[in-house]
Write a structure and sequence with these properties.
This protein has 295 residues and is mostly helical. The chain has 2 domains: 1-50; 59-290, Orthogonal Bundle (MetI-like fold), CATH 1.10.3720.10. The chain contains 12 helices and no strands. Helix 2 (59-66) packs across helix 12, helix 3 crosses helix 7 (159-183) and helix 3 runs antiparallel to helix 9. The longest helix has 46 residues, at 2-47. The radius of gyration is 25 Å and the shape is flat. It starts with a helix and ends in a 12-residue tail after the last helix.
């Protein structure tokens, strides 16, 4: 009798569980429909230009991979994105650590300073840097006035300026994922390490740092992928030697009107982005960002 009751209870539980999952899926339908109609369908139509121009062809991909200028530009884009990511990690980790271990008005003030860039248009920020770094800008004017230099130095239209502008824009995207993971680390873990004789630095190195790495990885993934598609910053603050892949795509669409080749370049960038995402998921696991076990 008990076995029959347990079987009925188990069947009822599975039925209720399936019903709950079905209800949850229904809530996703509007969002999925919107994504299909306004994202996946237009994206598929756009990417199809790389393979059908007008008939099936791989000519655009052959051109992209065989002409050195395009692969060299892709390498420069990867280099700039990697440099920006490394600089963001170095700057963002201490900021996220301070936010995690402070409270009250200080914490609120730091978070507001971190979020302010999200409220400022990127063009405004880039033109502000032009005013600061220009030959007659704030830095050069003060250095000349103090007698440090005899004439203005070149701070714009070079690799340094591009990395500076990209870092300024991407820093919040690194700070927030790291902070979200740090905030979820129980404070009693480092206290326990201290009670066992560990110095504060050793407790940080052996306990806190490993637990915060998923946030660092998430920030690196986000910053690196977003940096791959940068266009405005290198166009305004960089020189011809700092041209990025997105600029080449823009030239092919707006100036050359070569949609097929531009789509092929876009496909290469998209595939590269997907590979980076899969590598991250394989090494760290996307679920670890949300406090779950990795794969």
């Amino acid at each position: 009798m008990d076995a029959t009751a347990n079987t009925l209870n188990a069947n009822e539980f599975r039925r209720l569980n399936r019903r709950e999952q079905w209800i949850q899926m229904n809530f996703l339908v509007p969002c999925l429909l919107f994504l299909v109609l306004f994202f996946f369908v237009p994206l598929a139509m756009f990417l199809s230009n790389a393979f059908f121009d007008p008939g099936f062809t791989l000519e655009h991909f052959e051109k992209a991979f065989t002409r050195p200028i395009y692969m060299n530009t892709l390498v420069k884009t990867l280099k700039l994105s990697l440099t920006t990511t490394i600089v963001c990690v170095i700057l963002a980790y201490p900021v996220a650590f301070v936010i995690t271990h402070t409270s009250g008005k200080v914490k609120t003030a730091i978070l507001i300073l971190v979020l302010i860039p999200f409220w400022t248009n990127i063009l405004v920020r880039m033109f502000a840097w032009l005013a600061i770094l220009g030959r007659n800008g704030v830095i050069n004017s003060n250095l000349v006035a103090m007698g440090v230099i005899d004439e203005p130095i070149s701070l714009l239209y070079n690799y340094f300026a591009v990395v500076l502008g990209m870092t300024h824009y991407m820093l919040p995207f690194m700070i927030l994922p790291i902070y979200s993971v740090m905030a979820a680390i129980p404070a009693n873990l480092t206290d326990a390490a201290a009670n066992l004789g560990a110095t504060p630095f050793r407790a940080f190195l052996r306990v806190f740092l490993p637990l915060s790495l998923p946030g660092v990885g998430a920030g690196c993934l986000l910053v690196f992928i977003l940096s791959l598609g940068f266009f405005i910053t290198p166009a305004l603050m960089g020189g011809p030697q700092d041209t990025m892949f997105a600029q080449i795509i823009e030239i092919q669409i707006n100036q050359m009107l070569n949609w097929g080749f531009a789509t092929a370049l876009s496909t290469i960038l998209l595939v590269l982005t997907i590979i980076l995402y899969l590598v991250y998921d394989r090494m760290l696991g996307i679920d670890r960002i949300y406090g779950k076990e990795g794969h």
